[in-house]
Amino acid sequence: MSSKKTEPKKSEICPVLMYGEFMVTGSMKVRCSLILTETELTVQKISPALGGRGKVVYHLSDCVGCRAYRSHDSTDVGAYFSAYFYPLRTRWMRSGLARQRVEQCFRVAPDQNPSVNLQEAQRWSRAIRERVLHQRQQKTERQNHARELVREADLSKWDALVIMSGDGLLFEVVNGLMEREDWEEAIQTPLGVLPGGSGNALAASIHHFSGLQAVSSEELLISCGFILCKGLVSQLDLTSVCLASSQRLFSFLSLAWGFVSDVDIESEKYRHVGAARFTVGTLVRLASLRVYRGKLAYLPTENPMSQPSLVDSTATFRQRLPQSNSDSCCPSNGLLGHTLQNSSNSNNTPKSKQSNPSPLSVFGPTDFLLNPLNQPVPGHWTVVQDEDFVLVVAMYQSHLAEDMLAAPASRLDDGIIHLIYVKAGISRRSLLHLFLAMEKGGHLNTNCPHVVYVKVKALRLEPYSPKGIITVDGELVDYGPVQAQIHGSLARLIAW
């Protein structure tokens, strides 16, 4: 049917964005009017005498998608768009509410030209998707907002916490959970990840652990969405990171100093190019390679890598999720007497990137392997003799970014910090070759004498250079002495 030119008066509650009249396809073809607002899609029968409900209002917060398409029948000049909803409805023969799948399909045929009809269907489909996306953008409003939300939230209302963003938002969520009085229970809330940032290192790691070929962008999103649907829950190591400012953080990904952290922070100005910002940042930093002085010590791991323990909690996890009756798919640390200064040496380190300082957390497991920062490391630790470094990075996941397989041997819950450091003296060409090889995890096989890889349980880094950048999970933290200890299987993650 034709799309009507005239529009109804604006709703008293929400302005009408689009109006049209179409045929609703299904068991009975019914002519209906369609009204789209910022929050709702209203379907109104033009001939109520046909029986059934004359008006149905769908909330866009219940919509999961909309698509436009042509019919397989070449003689049909009309085009179609379908919207998919999962509204809460009363269960049949059972008490309570559950989400049930509803598909609404509309035929668009105001013209005899199939291309014109398809363009109109696409216009409606695009408008609905944009309104749906707008509904979802309510989430976090400022830095550390997610941290505050999960710190105070009633977690009993949720089966899991799913984060669609880059690694920074998950960093906030993890630390918010660990700052609760009930942290031991709170941190057992399953965490899910959907890549939506420029780094997406944990999402890439989860995909890598599934044993599939490396993917990126939309394919990585689809893979992580599929993993969420499966609902398998694994254990996840967290690392306690103690700063000289008495701040204690919990890290799921990495601790970095030197080249890696420089690129991470200084490439913020290239964020508009997506994941390619790291490539651009790498080339810029290679052109002006820096050397940092400092002292590095670590506690080597005594045991070889253990097999990851996978807890199949599919039944338990899915039992708590709403079921559809239709289709289903889709230690304490002493203070040092001085502070060093964060600097990118280019005066463009974004202040918003830095994690807000907070007092040393009284919650969380004891860092029994660590001495206070104002005391020497234990005698059985290894102290690196070199004091000039290009980079130091400690990792507990396989990926440092979507396309950087930095620690191929890492597993979610192996209880190991994978420590990689590059000593001064490496050429720019060798360093570039190193990062190119990292795309497939071959950098540790380059036999470069300046590259050292060791598995550890704890470490301490004491920068001597007065300026520099240290990051935890890609987030800027106070520059100065820092130490860390891994705590095996502390959290839970929806993964293979």
Automatic annotation (TrEMBL):
Keyword Ion transport: no
InterPro entries, per the entry: ATP-NAD_kinase_N (IPR017438), Diacylglycerol_kinase_cat_dom (IPR001206), Lipid_Phosphate_FormReg (IPR050187), NAD/diacylglycerol_kinase_sf (IPR016064), YegS/DAGK_C (IPR045540)
PROSITE patterns for the chain: DAGK
UniProtKB keywords: ATP-binding, Kinase, Nucleotide-binding, Transferase
Record GO terms (molecular function): ATP binding; lipid kinase activity
Domain DAGKc: 118-245
Keyword match Amino-acid biosynthesis: no
Chain residue ranges for the region called Disordered: 337-358
Classification via Pfam families: DAGK_cat, YegS_C
Composition skew (Low complexity), residue ranges: 341-358
Annotated GO CC locations: cytoplasm; membrane
Superkingdom as given in the UniProt entry: Eukaryota
A GO biological-process term: sphingosine biosynthetic process
Protein name, entry field: Sphingosine kinase 1
Natural source organism: Cyprinus carpio carpio
